[in-house]
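Build the 3D complex.
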Amino acid sequence: MAAGSRVAVAAYKGGSGLLLTLLYLFLYAPIVYVIYTSFNKDLIWPFPPDFTLDAYFKLADSSTYHEALWNSVLLGLGSAILCTVVATMGSMSILKYRSRWRGLIAVIYLCPLFVADLLVGISSLLFNRQVLGLPGNMGSAMIANAVHGTSFAFLIMIAQMARYDWRLDDAAMVFGAKPLRCFWEVTLPIIWPAMLGAFIISFILAFNNLEISFYNLGAIPTLPTIAWGSLRFGLGAELFALAALVNGVVLVTFTIMYLLMRYRIVSFGHRD
Amino acid sequence: MARRRLGPEGRFLLMALPGAIFVVVFLLLPILSIIVFSFWRTESYTLIPDWNLDNYATLFGTTTYMTFLLRSFTMAVAVSLASLVYAWPVAYFIAKHGDRYRLLLILALAAPFFTGIILRVTGIQGVMGPVGVINLGLMNYGLQPIEFIMYTQTAVGIGVTYLFIPFMVTAVYLSLLNFDFELLEVAKINGAKPWRAFIEITWPLNWMGTVIGLVLVFIPSMAESITPRFLGGPNAASFGQVLGLQFGETGTWALGSAMGVLLFAVSSLVILLMWRTVNLQRSGFTGGGS
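Done.
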């Protein structure tokens, strides 16, 4: 009996581990394909391989793509900063204080999850143009993306901080720390991994968002809107090269994070 | 202290309100405005405040629009269920056995979003399409190509699942992160079989996280407009795709607004129905609070 259940547990563990591996394969196969294609002469028919670095030389020369990349990064950073600040304040207030408004506030923070990107995009386009009289601009796109990212950041932070012991804060306050100092010296050192997670996720969501950004940026190019615009003439080789480079940076970052975790230099909030 | 001290209620509002106002102003007001515009009409790329129900009459009176809506709805239900079944064991594995690499394993699910949706869908085409890696490979070995992944609804379904399944895994994972696995030990000591412990403890206690995951997949799947264009056949146009057209080529914003309102209404209804199944007391996800 005991041996039988141990086998079952091992089979379950192996099976679900296999499912996870297959999921990664599924998620990364198209990306590997894009990277592979970026080194090929023929983008539409990259078989058999005919390797070249043309795409990368073209990318190095193209100021449009540099501008688009910069705009994407700017949009991602601006939106992620907004999301992280708003979500940190919101999630802390809900976890820390008992208030009759808690439920309502939580629902408001989660609202954006229930509205699709496309709807956020077109509704803020019409609101800005018709009600505020604003043409498409970086600020509007940042805000529209941040609204959507806020609830993701909020969810992540609530889930990660649900077990945080707020009595630590109270203790600091009893010993006379001002609220800001208490946050800086007591709360922040513990919750920063949750904030980092929220920041990364909201950055990713805004960085390559097509459906919100497209309707709110006007004529400002970002990576996804350039891709959308170039569809009519076939995707530019530069796009493939850029995607490959971005994924290279991601891979390096992940490797560094892995090493930091492997040798227990930084635990990123994990408690053994 | 010179400054008046705020009570807990005051401090709560001081911290919670800025974000709440931010969301209300930049999400709810735009949604309200498209509800208003959906009762107007458009003439040569301008909205005219001429109150009428024509947009809705057009939507509900034209079979094609209803077909698009039903197609998107069916797709969203199928994708949500597929994600649910696949994501649970995966999320459970990461939460239980991910050890100190859990954050990295989850971030690796989010990292594909660094590559734009259009490139990724092109990549899916490159892998699954008629001249993609899979089918070329099969034909190379003298085998029949797989036909149901070429320009069919199934292909669109796989593509949409590809895009949104990370949301589902993350939501279930975040829920399991706050789940007390000790409870399962207690159940075991008391003689419960693993599957029984799962059905009576793990599943209900994580139902709220699961519902959030389902919503996170359902909402964007229902509105998806890019994937059908690349992976679908001639009869694959989705509601979102046609909605987008109203704001591009045709410039019929009022009709587009009405389509947006309809999409919003259907999505809200689904969310409401799902939310009714959540019991906050049993979910264990209400947040601590002192």
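Chain B touches chain A through 97 residues (CB under 8 Å).
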